[in-house]
Amino acid sequence: MKIPRKPAIAFASFAAASALFLSACSSSTTDASSSTTTDSSTDSTTETVSSSTTNGEATYDDLDISDVDLSPSTDGATTITLADGASSSDGDGVTIDGDTITITAAGTYVLSGELSDGQVVVDVEDGDVYLVLDGASITMSGAPAIQVDNASNTIVYTEAGTTNTLADTGTYDDTDEETGGAALWSSDDLFLAGEGTLIVDAGRNDGITSKDTLVIASGTVEVTAVDDGIRGKDALVILDGDITVDAGTGHALKSDNEADDEDTSRFVGVVWIEGGTIDLTSGEDGIHAANQVTIDGGDVTVDAGDDGIHSDVYLRIGDAEIDITNSYEGLEAAMMYLDAGTVSIVSSDDGINGSDGSGQSDTTGMGGAPGGGSMPNGGGPGGGSASGTSTTTDGTTSTTSTTTTSGTISVTYTTSTDDTSTASTTTTAMGGVDAAEEGVLVTISGGTYLINADGDGLDSNGSIEMTGGTVVISGPTNNGNGAIDYNGTFEITGGTIAASGASGMAQSPSSGEATLSISFNNTVASGTTLSVLDSDGNLVMSFTTEKTSSSLVLSSSELTSGETYTVVSGGTASGGDAYGPLMIGGTLTGGDTLGTLDAS
User: How far apart (Å, rounded) are the C-alpha atoms in residues 128 and 109?
Assistant: First the structure.
């Protein structure tokens, strides 16, 4: 067993040099809010303008959801008994042709029994149709188990205490415009509700799809699909329920209509979650929307092959519990509003990514410093060339002093306003500068966000504004990414951010509240507690590294600009308010003093 080596530190003002610490990620020039499509029949180019461009961010009322009764009475309902070659009904509005049952009139229908290769079709000229599933099992080969061709609204309701199964098998033909591409498919608005269980096993394509709006209000819904799990092309709204989705090669939850060509004032391409317990597994994004994702409640868990939650334009998170256990990028959108919530993110690339969304995900792994390799042991910003601190500080604009601390040289110096200091070395190492993208902004006003990212932790190809909340980042171990990364500005006027990671692309907020930016000469081992004490010896904040690190940025109202703080490695911090690896306040016992520095 090796004894972990205590790190030497170098203090640097990343904020003052932020103009030189620019994005690790490539930028894109495509406008997120519009796309171009080609009509092959005329060989002409037309532009589709998304509803978000026309209408902006949608409110819940803007979704214009139909007012329907989600607690249907079965008094006087028509009963349909399903049986292979022997299905029957006791009322009007139903035609039976072999194993195809077609509902032709509005009303309430109670379904029970089993079809091993049959289908229920809804084709009603006007009015709402209630399908009350009371122990029904329908499997259909080559087509949906339930297909809604026409109805004002269709409500699929599961009776309390029942388990109901819908399945399709065979191969999906995406050129067939008559046959729906999901085990439960609707051409009009579709509602799911009830107190029972609905199991959907989609062997052809998607699990549940509405070409218009799909609302899940209650009940237990379990979906397994070879492609997308649950899809509302205009809007997908989840109000409550216990929902589990396993989407093989597709998105778990999806809304993909960019615009309504017949009514451009409509808000479409929206996923909206108000509540429920939602467990998502997907080959692509866990949640994907063409225009907007709003999560204002609920408990959401995501294991995604691509992005955890992705919107091409708007993403807003309110008072929700979100746990992204696996993703390429955790959260991605052009306009991101993090208002509240408790969110944890594990990502192989960026944890939070403000982007227009047009970039192609490279799930084979983007991480790694230019030229490959991981964070150097004993290196510093720029892959080791800037770690000498006192030798890279511009003596004409900085005041330096050197002290010996436990045999390790540390350096304390005031901020230089000349960008020829440590930062210049790093920029040269990266060899590239990305311009800020217009229309890209990450706004953080509340909530707690814990990020464990192999790429950038908090990244914006535009700017970042933080007025509240707590963001804690265990960032990259390679110098090709940074725990904080932005192309424009990062203004922080409230809240707390703690960002640990490699130092090659390290950035800190460009303006606002007090900040400590610390670069370590030697790699800090995982599990090391790094603490900051005020001039009276009181513990202000501590951060316990979750992976190797060579930089730490702390910005908080707990710090005071111009005040001198002591940095301590090791020891035990306790009694404070914990946010993942970050603790605010409390007491520290033990540890070794590394040096002092002034907050910017």
Answer: 11
Contact at 8 Å (CB) between 509 and 515? yes
In this predicted structure, the answer to whether residue 424 has a pLDDT above a threshold of 70 is: no
Q: Chain centroid to CA 574: how far?
A: 31
Q: Does the pLDDT value for residue 259 go beyond 60?
A: yes
Cα(371)–Cα(502) distance, integer angstroms: 15
Say if residues 282 and 276 touch (Cβ distance below 8 Å): no
d(C-alpha 415, C-alpha 406), whole Å: 25
Of the chain, the end-to-end C-alpha distance in Å amounts to: 39
Residue 506 binned pLDDT confidence (cut-offs 50, 70, 90): confident
Q: Are 203 and 181 in contact (CB under 8 A)?
A: no
Beta bridge partners of residue 154, listed in sequence order: 129, 190
Encode burial over 463-473: b for 16+ CB neighbours within 10 A, e otherwise. Answer: bbbbebbbbbb
If DSSP states are collapsed to H, E and C, what string results for 173-236?
A: CCCCCCCCCEEEEECCEEEEEECCEEEEEECCCEEEEECCEEEECCCEEEEEECCCCEEECCEE
pTM comes to: 0.84
Give the integer Cα–Cα distance in Å for 410 and 341: 39
Residue written as token pair 């040269």: 428
Q: Which amino acid is at 147?
A: Q
34-64 burial, b at 16+ Cβ within 10 Å, e below that, comes to bbeeeeeeeeeeeeeebbbbbbbbbeeebbe
Name residue 429's amino acid. A
For residue 17, the model assigns a pLDDT of: 31
200 close to 224: Cβ distance less than 8 angstroms: yes
Instruction: Indicate the helix (H) or strand (E) that contains 259.
Output: none
Alpha-carbon distance 481 to 502, whole Å? 7
Among the listed residues 492, 505, 517, 380, the one whose alpha carbon sits nearest the alpha carbon of residue 455: 505
214-247 pLDDT, tens digit per residue, is 999 999 999 999 999 999 999 999 999 999 999 9
- One-letter-per-residue 3-state SS of 416-446: CCCCCCHHHHHHHHHCCCCCCCCCCEEEEEE
**Spatial distance between the Cα atoms of 140 and 117, rounded to a whole number of angstroms:** 5
User: Looking at beta carbons, which pairs linking 4-7 to residues 24 or more positions away fall under 8 Å?
Assistant: 4/525, 4/527, 4/528, 5/522, 5/525, 6/406, 6/408, 6/522, 6/569, 6/570, 6/592, 6/594, 7/520, 7/521, 7/522, 7/523, 7/524, 7/528, 7/550, 7/569, 7/594
State the Cα–Cα distance between residues 434 and 413, nearest whole angstrom.
29
Tell me if 483 sits within 8 A of 508, measured CB to CB: no
| pLDDT band at residue 31 under the 50/70/90 scheme | very low
- Cα 322 to chain centroid distance, Å, stands at 9
